[in-house]
UniProtKB/TrEMBL annotation:
Classification via InterPro entries: NAD(P)-bd_dom_sf (IPR036291)
Taxonomic path: Eukaryota, Sar, Stramenopiles, Ochrophyta, Bacillariophyta
Domain of life, source organism: Eukaryota
Gene3D superfamilies: NAD(P)-binding Rossmann-like Domain
Disordered, as annotated region: 1-28
Name the UniProt record assigns to this protein: Uncharacterized protein
Length: 310
């Protein structure tokens, strides 16, 4: 069961027959790498986080800070979406050995142990510095309420547990406690009637799972400031589709991109954030040496989150 849950596929820069490029154990690098784990990293938000991480880390790299960034992406399939081949940044990262894909079902109680075994090639290198974990795990399955509770709640708790079991090998002055960031949900301006009658009756497990994770974070006093939840509203932007469809992208939630949702009465019940703003905020927090003063970051505060860090 463990091996079925988590297997490593392919070789660095190699082509898998039924997926795009995936990668396996990296060669030992005496200089070490900055390593970031991203759960659910091939989805709408997760892909934005990967792109932002590659861009921001490259901008911070100097002649005296030359560690390269390695992104370990854990998904249920362990495969890169086919459209990654058409994205210059992500396809180059795969080719350069910066982007590695591992398969793992985070809903399983054994997932922390199986992930720990899968990342041994990185944890065994004492020169590596683990930045932390980003969890973009979440789903709405109208046909299975229990699955929504587990996926949006327990799976994210497992991601947190993995984050704070990572070795802290780095002894540099710049090292700090690993950061953990999970994408949650902002409901601050939803009317009680709409929330209770529409959403809680339509997919209650989604919100119950998010609440389970939020409550869990509130109890983690040892990691306060280093573990946060970005409570996004409706995420707008461009969602990629399968390459077989004409055109590589389709807009996600078109009305929110056309009108002014904060001013239009039609959208008065929704908070909105662009997917690139969300991804950039996640990475700014992860790469910063400073803790966050807040555990929960509301939708309207995400765009400026850690933007003015000194």
């Amino acid at each position: 069961m463990d091996q079925a849950l988590l297997t490593r596929r392919g070789a660095p820069g190699a082509r898998n027959e039924d997926s795009t490029s995936t990668s396996s154990s990296p060669p030992i690098d005496s200089a070490g790498s900055d390593v970031l784990l991203v759960f659910g990293g091939t989805g709408f938000v997760g892909s934005s986080v990967l792109t932002a991480a590659l861009e921001q880390h490259a901008a911070k790299t100097t002649a005296t800070t030359s560690k390269k960034l390695e992104l370990l992406v854990i998904t249920r399939t362990g495969k890169a979406p086919k459209w990654y081949d058409k994205d210059p940044s992500l396809s180059r990262a795969i080719h350069d050995g910066q982007l590695h894909f591992l398969a793992g079902d985070m809903r399983q109680s054994s997932s922390p142990d199986t992930v720990a075994r899968a990342i041994v090639p990185w944890t065994s290198n004492a020169a590596n510095h683990f930045l932390g974990v980003v969890s973009c795990i979440g789903c709405i399955t109208l046909w299975n309420n229990d699955n929504m509770v587990v996926t949006n709640g327990r799976a994210n708790i497992h991601a947190y547990q993995i984050c704070y079991s990572l070795p802290q090998h780095s002894t540099t002055a710049n090292s700090s406690k690993p950061k953990f960031c999970v994408i949650s949900r902002d409901r601050t301006n939803w009317s009680q009637a709409l929330y209770a009658n529409l959403n809680m009756r339509s997919f209650p497990g989604y919100y119950e799972g998010k609440r389970v994770m939020d409550d869990f974070l509130a109890e983690q006093h040892d990691t306060r400031g280093y573990a946060v939840a970005l409570q996004a509203g409706c995420v707008s932007g461009v969602r990629h589709t399968v390459p077989e469809l004409q055109g590589s992208t389709l807009p996600f939630w078109i009305p929110l991109n056309v009108c002014c949702p904060y001013e239009c009465p039609l959208w008065c019940c929704f908070k909105v954030i662009n997917v690139e703003d969300l991804g950039n905020a996640v990475v700014r927090f992860i790469l910063s040496k400073q803790p966050s003063p807040e555990i929960w970051i509301k939708n309207d505060d995400i765009k400026s989150f850690f933007q003015t860090e000194s």
